[in-house]
Amino acid sequence: MNNLDTLSPAGDVEALIDRRAVGYSLEAEFYTSQEVFDLDLAAVFAKHWLFSATEAEIPDPGDYVTIDIGPYSVIIVRDDDEQVRAFRNVCRHRGSRLLENGCGSVGNLVCPYHQWTYRVDGTLVYAESQPPGFDRSALGLRPVHVRSVAGLIFVCLADETPPDFDEVAAVLEPYIAPFDLVHTKVAHQSDLIEEGNWKLVMENNRECQHCDGAHPELITAYFPLFGYSANDITPRMRPVFERYQTAQEHLTKACSRSNFPRDERRELDTRVTGFQVSHLPLDGSGSSFGPNGEPVCHKLMGNIPDARFGDLSIHMQPNSWFHLLSDHAVVFRVLPLAPGRSLVRTTWLVHEDAREGVDYNLENLTSVWNATNLQDRDLVAGAQKGVSDPGYIPGPYSMVEGDVEAFVNWYIQRLRAHFES
Fold first, then answer.
1. Which residues make Cβ contacts (< 8 Å) with residue 154, sequence separation at least 6?
2. 13, HSE (Cβ side, Cα atoms, 13 Å)
3. Does the pLDDT at position 7 exceed 60?
4. Which residue ranges does UniProt annotate as crossing the membrane (predicted)?
5. Which segments of 76-121 does DSSP mark as H helices, in order?
6. What's the pLDDT at 226?
7. Hey, how many other C-beta atoms are within 10 angstroms of the C-beta on 412?
8. Backbone angles phi, psi at 117, to 5 degrees
9. Helical packing angle, 198-205 and 402-420, nearest 10°
10. ∠ at Cα 10 (9, 12), nearest 5°?
11. Cα-based distances in Å from 300 to 120, 149, 288, 319
C-alpha cells in the first residue's frame, strides 16, 4: 500500500504496525504518511526524553534556547540560581508565543503581546489591568520536565515521564563526567535541513556499512568496522582490523590508568529510554577527527589524561547521538519537521579555556563532520525518494545493520505502547 490517501483510521495504522516484519525495513507509509508523522509526534516525541541542548549553550543566568517539536515550543533557560529550567513557550494570558528567537539572554521573560512578565524561574511578576484578588502565583509558566546528564540537557513533554531515565542517567554519567561538558563552550553550531523522514535520518546514523564508500573524510580516523565481528572480516578489511586491534589495546590501557569505565552497554530496544554507549579507538594517530586521527584542539577536555582516548560514542532513542573525544565533543539532535523533512543540529564543544586561532582552528575542528553531514543529507534524500516510489517494498537488513533493526524495533514498540495506553 503506497497511496497515502488510503491510510486513514487508527485501525489502519495499527494494522500497518502489526504487520511490520522483523529484520526488514519499514513500509513506505511510515516514512511518507502525514498520519504516521502526526502519530510519531504524539507517541514518540511528546512522550519520551529528548536531547535538546547542552549546558554550554546557556552558561549564564538568563541565557536561553528554544526548541520546537512539532506544534510544541519549549524554552530552556538558566535561572538566577544557575539551575536549568524548561517551560512551555506560551504566555498564560492569551497564549502568545513568548520567545521567537532560537537563543538569547533575558533578565525577565516578557510577552510581546500584552507584556505579561515572568522571572526566569517561571513566576509571573507583572500583569497589567487585572481585578482585585488576581492571583499571580497561579499563572506562572507551565513547566516542562528537564534533566541535565553531565551537561547534556533532555526535556520530556509528557505529564508522566518514562520511569527508567534515572537508571539510564546513572549508567551514562560515569562515562560522560570525565569530559566535564559543563565547563565547555560552543565553538560552532550548524543546522541542516534534510529532505527525509526523521526515522531515515536515524537509521542512516545507526549503521556504518555505507561509511567506507560515502565518508572518505570520516574514515581517515574511523575504523569502518561497525557491526562486524572478527569472523566477519573480509580479506580486504584484514589490515584495517589489525590496526584496530593495536589501537584497541592502547585505548584499554589508557582507560585502565584513569579508571575510566570500559563496559559497552547496548540497550537500544530493551527499555523505554533506549541507549547505547561504546568506546572505540581511532585510526592513524588515534587522537581525534583530524586527518589520519590527528588532534583538532590542543587543549584536552576535562580530566581526560591521554590525547589518544578514542571516541566515546553514545546513541539515545529517539533523536540523538554523541561523540566525545579527548580534545572536543560533537553532539547531534534530530527533530521532525514534516513527513519528508527533518532538522539536524550539530554542536561542537571545546574546553571553555580553548582559544580559537590558538588552540583550535574552526575549519579543522568542523571539517570532517560538516562533510559527513552533507554526505548523509544526500543519502537520506535518496532514501526518501526511494521509499516514496511506488516500486518500493521493504528489504532485509544485513548482518551489520543490527542497530538499525534495534532502532526500528524500539520505534514499533513505542507505537504499540501508545495505542495500548
1. 49, 50, 51, 52, 146, 147, 148, 165
2. 21
3. no
4. none
5. none
6. 65
7. 18
8. -125, 135
9. 140
10. 70
11. 33, 21, 11, 28
The residues spanned by each domain of the chain are 50-149, 164-415
- Strand (E) or helix (H) holding 330: strand 329-338
**Burial (CB count <10 Å: 0-12, 13-18, 19+), residue 391:** exposed
Dump pLDDT digits (tens) for 261-270: 999 999 999 9
**The C-alpha cell that represents 209 in the structure block:** 556499512
Tell whether the torsion through CA atoms of 38, 44, 46 and 50 is positive or negative: negative
Q: 263 by DSSP, 3-state: which?
A: coil
- pLDDT tens for 113-145 read 999 999 999 999 999 999 999 999 999 999 999
DSSP string, 264-305: -EEESSSSSS-EEEEEE--STTSSSSSGGG--SBSS--TT--
Q: Which CATH number fits domain 50-149: 3.90.1150.10, 3.10.450.10, 2.60.40.1230, 2.102.10.10?
A: 2.102.10.10
Statement: residue 10 has pLDDT above 80: no
Answer whether 167's CB lies under 8 Å from 138's CB. Answer: no
Angle of CA points 43, 153, 312, to nearest 5°? 100
Which residue in the block uniquely carries the three cell numbers 568542523? 366
Q: Which of 67, 117, 116 is nearest to 88 (CA)?
A: 67
The pTM for the full model equals 0.94
Grid cell digits, residue 203: 537509521
Beta strand ranges found along 70-160 (DSSP E):
72-78, 84-88, 103-105, 109-110, 117-118, 124-126, 145-149, 152-156
Contact 147, 165 (CB under 8 A): yes
Please state the φ and ψ torsions of residue 325, each to the nearest 5 degrees: -125, 175
pLDDT tens by residue, 337-378 = 999 999 999 999 999 999 999 999 999 999 999 999 999 999
Q: Which among 251, 228, 195 has a CA at the least distance from the CA of 378? A: 195
Specify whether the CB–CB gap between 153 and 49 falls below 8 A: no
Reported as type and span, the H/E element at residue 40 is: helix 34-40
Instruction: Find the range with the poorest average confidence among 3-17, 38-52, 260-274, 373-387.
Output: 3-17
The cell numbers describing 39, all together, are: 502519530
CATH 3.40.50.970: does it fit domain 164-415? Answer: no
Neighbour tally for 55: CB within 10 Å: 21
Instruction: Provide Rg for the chain, Cα atoms.
Output: 23
